[in-house]
Design goal:
Elements: H1 14-38, H2 42-72, H3 84-113, E1 121-123, E2 127-129, H4 138-172
Antiparallel strand pairs: 1-2
Helix pairs in contact: 1-2, 2-3, 3-4
The structure holds protoporphyrin IX containing FE (2 copies).
């Protein structure tokens, strides 16, 4: 449930805040690992892609919880000063984020599962996440590969837009904004 204070300084619930920052940190780590793996090969690449896949599976897990939490817990009302176009743009960015945080890791999981010879995803040596029951020919596999890379890459643009919006509200419009997504 969103917490509303009497002076109108609304903020997200602690659960939503923890999920937001946990997922954001995991995604940014995964983007860095993917970028580093791009130029690597052999065991160096495996030591980057192992954590990439395990972290990606964690993103999917926490994102499902975040979506369920969001469906059952409405967001705190937006500051009254926000212009109409800003409300619409922030809604679009948030909806795209909710789609991406599920679709990008799911596409990664499909990618690995559709690769003949996969033995599941090693989750930091703790257990093995089974493959999804899919099979794909070479063309299908390449298509999933392109989809996964593009969904992953789309995060960079969306994060940039999201952070710019938050900075604008906080520092140019001078409205208290960051505290909405910060425990206090
Ligand atoms: C991959 C990284 C990130 C993802 C996936 C993400 C996702 C989201 C989503 C989905 C919401 C809307 C929550 C809702 O209303 O249901 C949100 C809100 C918010 N995020 Fe992020 N975020 C990320 C990174 C960041 C970063 C780096 C900042 C720092 C500037 C940030 C600051 C905020 C703030 C202040 C809000 C509240 C906005 C509002 O109430 O309108 N986020 N984020
Ligand atoms: C939020 C989670 C994820 C993000 C943001 C993400 C992002 C990315 C990006 C940007 C690339 C492209 C790197 C390049 O250009 O070479 C990539 C590659 C890859 N990802 Fe992910 N990924 C995520 C989750 C996953 C998951 C869950 C798996 C598998 C279980 C996975 C498996 C792979 C594999 C195998 C590649 C290499 C593809 C290739 O080189 O052909 N990813 N990922």
């Amino acid at each position: 449930m969103a917490t509303t204070t009497s002076n109108g300084r609304d903020r997200y619930s602690t659960v939503a805040i923890i999920l937001h920052w946990l997922i954001a940190a995991l995604i940014i780590t995964n983007l860095v690992l993917a970028k580093l793996a791009e130029g690597a090969s052999g065991s160096a690449r495996s030591s980057l892609m192992g954590p990439h896949m395990a972290i990606g599976i964690s993103v999917l897990f926490f994102s499902i919880i975040m979506v369920l939490w969001r469906i059952t817990h409405p967001r705190p009302p937006l500051p009254a000063e926000l212009a109409g176009w800003e409300r619409v743009l922030s809604k679009i960015v948030h909806v795209l984020f909710y789609i991406l945080i599920i679709a990008a890791p799911l596409a990664g999981w499909l990618l690995v599962s559709s690769h003949g010879g996969s033995k599941g995803i090693d989750f930091f040596g703790l257990f093995t996440v089974p493959d999804l029951p899919v099979s794909a020919d070479k063309q299908g596999h390449e298509l999933i590969d392109t989809v996964h890379k593009n969904l992953g890459g789309a995060f960079i643009y969306l994060i940039a837009l999201h952070v710019l919006g938050a900075l604008k509200h906080q520092f140019i419009d001078k409205m208290p904004y960051f505290h909405r997504m910060w425990p206090g």
